Task: inverse folding
């Protein structure tokens, strides 16, 4: 291995060892966007204050997420002798004093908050983390460091075999690196599954310089945050992956394009890049090899289509992020019309371990056709919002029960979305596996990793309006099929929701499905997937809306009416007061809801569930007409 | 004056000299349009007309192209932000847990459209994109701080309190 890299690794290992042997209790709090939303910053401040005030033999650090996002803030605690590390959950600031009393002053544990033992032996009260139900079936490879290292400290990453894969790649020719990547079978992790090695080979075979690498960290699919967990938890794994790709493709400069909504990712990636420069791992004459690679962290500004590789390229170029017409493909003319390769965050992040452990090891993890592991996030009408890494292949049922904690109380499972607003909706489908084919067969796709579960209280027509509205908002405006088509689809859905559905609407949708596929980029090509699949999977619900003027979920504005069922309910005065449009008039005995003012926000029913009734409006009108007719 | 468009606080727009100094580090042809815009917005809270012209000159391009970029992205703003800014999370986890009803109720309470400001320009509401803090769904961010696990009624109370604070 490169002698200078060996020296860098030795220095980092020494720094890591010194920290491990500090003789202090080490408390590492997960500090990422999910934990900050649940008070992690207050926890860290409380820990530091209490440790300083009481002069405790403890120190506080930060780490990334173990994926228990619904139980943040989590923290790992390594005892003073360094023999045991335990993961704790729900360590809010108000619990800090009692917690420190136990784990530092008394040197014991807090079983009530413990998730499991990470290192060392289990105790009668606390089992091994690897035995925790949430960890079953998980294989943490890309996430191996997340939750165990400080993402803002390059020494931690290097001490955990970081940059060793790059070191191995330095001893290989670009052809050998590409071959290893191809042998591994690593497919693009944003949903396409296109072999990463082939993409690198396209760039390797380019005829000009400069050549560019782009890391697509514009994780725009709402409900997906796997790339965020990775960037916030282990930024160097992405840099190392890009360095390996740079060797393979003989690239000169790289860009990490991070979406605007992830400011902490921007900060962590920038810190990591600066540290890598300081260690001589980036820049000119890397480690004395004569190779140069510059890496720039680039911040987006809020645009979904910049997740499309040529939209992203235009965005870096400084233009509107409108996807380009292909060909030419980025490998021929990308950034500044120079050869460019774009990969997803998770795709790059797999490269270091492939270099370190070989393609056969990497591909051997699951029997599925799709090789390696994949990160997924789960959210929706479920108990846990969580992030996991699994080999391809578990069923949706396993994921729902094990990783999402089942449906919330009172919610009945209806279906799920397999990966972003372009991916489609599945009715039921609990036995489908997390692999690419089942969705392709249904005309959908498994996207970047965000699985969203929905329940019977969600109306499928309303969800179609939501996803098509998103596609309309985010259309770049180039193709009439897309910007006009999504707009038309939303108009038709709105009319159906207001009670104006027509038989011909289904044909209109089918026409839109047929014409949007002519759009230039994925955004337009797949914008109608939700409606296309919803018409197949939930046809009866559409017919109810269009023909019967009935919304079974009680959501669509024009098909429902809020009425007062029980005049003397004790909650009615409060329900009247909460109404944001003052639609509820009268007093006990004469309460009435003015349908013209009511916006169906449901606030009154939240407060007076027994007194307020949501009725099918069409049925009301029929009965009113019948009464008028005598 | 920044105040002219919205009747907001009387801070003047940044001067041309200030803007020139701020973006002096950026160069043409290096992908610096968006970083320059970010720097202006991070410094002043918004991108003024002057800033667009200064950036265009600095990067050897045209104000039309720079404005084309500004107007394409949701997070560049051309007017100062209101004192209290509510970002409503439009993500799917929030949506399936009643997020759209919450939006409707907040809009009615504050009497503004999504993307608008109250008549006194003290409170604004805009569409926020999912950042994966879905354990808090349904949620809004008030000046960047999560207000999570909302019900429609708690969202109305929150909006009324913010409106009251501003009055």
Result:
């Amino acid at each position: 291995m490169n002698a200078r890299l060996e020296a860098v690794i030795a220095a980092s290992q020494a720094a890591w060892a010194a920290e491990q042997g500090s003789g202090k209790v080490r408390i590492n709090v997960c500090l990422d966007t999910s934990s900050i939303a649940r008070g992690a910053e207050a926890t860290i401040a409380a820990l530091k204050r209490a440790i300083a005030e009481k002069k405790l033999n403890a120190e506080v650090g930060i780490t990334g997420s173990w994926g228990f996002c619904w139980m943040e803030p989590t923290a790992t605690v390594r005892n003073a002798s360094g023999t045991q590390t335990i993961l704790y959950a729900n360590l809010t600031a108000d619990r800090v004093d009692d917690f420190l009393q136990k784990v530092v002053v008394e040197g014991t544990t807090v079983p009530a908050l413990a998730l499991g033992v990470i290192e060392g032996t289990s105790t009668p009260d606390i089992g091994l983390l690897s035995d925790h139900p949430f960890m079953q079936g998980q294989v943490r490879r890309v996430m191996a460091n997340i939750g165990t290292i400080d993402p803002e400290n390059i020494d931690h990453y290097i001490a955990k075999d970081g940059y060793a894969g790059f070191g191995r790649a330095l001893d290989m020719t670009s052809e050998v690196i590409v071959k290893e990547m191809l042998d591994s079978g690593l497919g693009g992790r944003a949903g396409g599954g296109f072999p990463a090695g082939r993409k690198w080979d396209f760039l390797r075979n380019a005829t000009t310089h400069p050549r560019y690498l782009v890391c697509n960290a514009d994780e725009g699919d709402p409900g997906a945050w796997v790339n965020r967990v990775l960037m916030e938890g282990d930024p160097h794994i992405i840099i190392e992956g890009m360095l390996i790709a740079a060797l393979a493709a003989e690239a000169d400069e790289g860009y990490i394009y991070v979406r605007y909504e992830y400011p902490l990712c921007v900060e962590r990636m920038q810190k990591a890049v600066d540290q890598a420069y300081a260690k001589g791992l980036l820049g000119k004459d890397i480690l004395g090899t004569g190779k140069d690679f510059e890496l720039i962290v680039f911040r987006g500004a809020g645009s979904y289509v910049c997740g499309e590789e040529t939209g992203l390229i235009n965005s870096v170029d400084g233009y509107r992020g409108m996807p380009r017409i292909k060909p030419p493909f980025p490998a021929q003319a990308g950034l500044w019309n120079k050869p460019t390769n774009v990969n997803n965050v998770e795709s790059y992040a797999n490269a270091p371990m492939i270099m370190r452990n070989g393609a056969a090891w990497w591909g051997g993890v699951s029997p599925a056709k799709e090789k390696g592991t994949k990160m997924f996030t789960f959210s929706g009408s479920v108990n846990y919002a969580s992030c996991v890494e699994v080999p391809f292949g578990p069923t949706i049922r396993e994921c729902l029960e094990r990783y999402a904690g089942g449906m919330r109380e009172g919610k009945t499972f209806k279906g799920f979305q397999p990966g972003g607003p372009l991916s489609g909706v599945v009715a039921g489908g609990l036995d489908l596996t997390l692999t690419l084919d089942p969705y392709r067969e249904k005309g959908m796709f498994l996207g970047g990793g965000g699985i969203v579960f929905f329940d019977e209280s969600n109306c499928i027509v309303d969800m179609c309006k939501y996803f098509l509205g998103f596609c309309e908002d985010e259309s770049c405006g180039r193709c009439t099929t897309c910007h006009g088509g999504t707009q038309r689809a939303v108009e038709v859905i709105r009319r159906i929701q207001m009670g104006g559905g027509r038989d011909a609407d289904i044909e209109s949708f089918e026409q839109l499905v047929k014409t949007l596929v002519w759009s230039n980029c994925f955004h337009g090509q797949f914008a109608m997937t939700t409606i296309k699949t919803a018409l197949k999977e939930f046809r009866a619900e559409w017919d109810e809306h269009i023909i019967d003027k009935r919304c079974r979920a009680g959501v669509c504005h024009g098909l429902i009416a809020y009425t007062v069922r029980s005049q003397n309910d004790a909650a009615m005065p409060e329900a009247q007061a909460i109404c944001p449009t003052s639609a509820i008039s009268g007093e006990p005995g004469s309460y009435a809801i003015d349908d013209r003012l009511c916006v169906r926000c449901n606030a009154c029913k939240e407060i007076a569930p027994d007194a307020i009734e949501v009725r099918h409006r069409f049925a009301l009108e029929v009965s009113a007409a019948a009464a008028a007719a005598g | 004056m920044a105040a002219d468009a919205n009747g907001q606080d009387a801070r003047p727009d940044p001067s041309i000299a200030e803007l020139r100094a701020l973006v002096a580090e950026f160069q043409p042809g290096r992908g610096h349009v968006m970083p320059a815009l970010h720097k202006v917005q991070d410094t002043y809270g918004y991108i003024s007309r002057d800033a667009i012209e200064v950036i265009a000159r600095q990067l050897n391009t045209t104000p039309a192209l720079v404005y084309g970029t500004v107007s394409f992205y949701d997070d560049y703003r051309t007017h100062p932000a209101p004192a209290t800014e509510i970002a409503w999370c439009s993500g799917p986890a929030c949506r399936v847990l009643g997020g759209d009803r919450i939006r409707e109720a907040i809009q009615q309470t504050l009497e503004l459209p999504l993307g608008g400001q109250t008549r006194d320009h003290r409170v604004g509401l805009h569409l926020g994109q999912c950042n994966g803090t879905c354990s808090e769904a349904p949620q809004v961010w008030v000046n960047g701080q999560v207000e999570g696990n909302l019900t429609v009624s708690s969202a109305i109370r929150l909006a009324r309190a913010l409106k009251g604070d501003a009055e």
Helices of chain B lie at 3-6, 16-22, 33-44, 49-58, 63-72, 92-96, 99-110, 152-166.
